Amino acid sequence: MEILMKRFVITTMVVTVSLLVIGCDAKRHTVGGTEYNGWAPNKMNYTSDWASHEQFYVGDWLYWTYDEPRQNRQLFSVFEVNKTDYESCSTDHTLYNISRGGGRDVYQLNYSRPYYFISGGGFCWQGMKLTVFVQELPPAPSEAPSNGSPFSASFPGILTIAGAAALVLLKLGVHPDC
Ligand SMILES: *[C@@H]1O[C@H](CO)[C@@H](O)[C@H](O)[C@H]1NC(C)=O
Ligand SMILES: *[C@@H]1O[C@H](CO)[C@@H](O)[C@H](O)[C@H]1NC(C)=O
Ligand SMILES: *[C@@H]1O[C@H](CO)[C@@H](O)[C@H](O)[C@H]1NC(C)=O
Ligand SMILES: *[C@@H]1O[C@H](CO)[C@@H](O)[C@H](O)[C@H]1NC(C)=O
């Protein structure tokens, strides 16, 4: 009986920890918000109106959508450029061509530094430019202090917390935000 209980607790804890790890994994940020075709001219100041309300961490992704109407896929684009070229809207020496032609582009933010993105085709002048500041990953949440082995020390407590958390997360399909 007790062995079965222990197995149940361990399984639930593993599930909970896995869900927490998945939930804290890299986040995908849809540029301009969740609105469809978020990457468009004269829409917003992407840096002050959108990016300043988001937290970007190393490993996160940016996701640009501009696939409807179809012609937008050719008109707009996404390039990483340096600060000088960002300010002057120049695509003369881009650092990275992010556009793949389908109007849906992704880019992983691998370093803790400022990033500068612009659209080609002159649309940078119409506001299609974005700066993001990427931070190091936040420190992992500290473990609750406990004396001795958690499996023997506070058996019912762990069962309740781990079980409840895992069931709630599984049921709602929710990944907690970091
Ligand atoms: C967007 O906002 C930033 C921060 O306020 C400002 O420096 C920048 O000039 C603005 N960009 C445009 C295209 O208006
Ligand atoms: C950006 O690149 C251009 C061309 O290579 C260079 O002249 C300029 O100094 C660079 N700016 C920065 C901030 O690195
Ligand atoms: C960027 O890459 C896309 C897809 O490979 C390509 O169609 C496009 O011509 C490239 N743009 C530039 C300026 O190289
Ligand atoms: C970011 O890192 C991943 C994993 O190392 C790598 O596959 C990818 O090419 C990198 N992306 C950029 C834009 O450097």
From TrEMBL:
Signal peptide boundaries: 1-26
Record key words, sorted: Disulfide bond, Glycoprotein, Signal
Phytocyanin domain segment(s): 27-136
Any Pfam family: Cu_bind_like
Molecular function via GO: electron transfer activity
GO CC annotation, single: plasma membrane
Gene3D superfamilies for this protein: Cupredoxins - blue copper proteins (2.60.40.420)
PROSITE patterns in the record: PHYTOCYANIN, PROKAR_LIPOPROTEIN
Family: Belongs to the early nodulin-like (ENODL) family.
Function (record text): May act as a carbohydrate transporter.
Protein name stated in the entry: Phytocyanin domain-containing protein
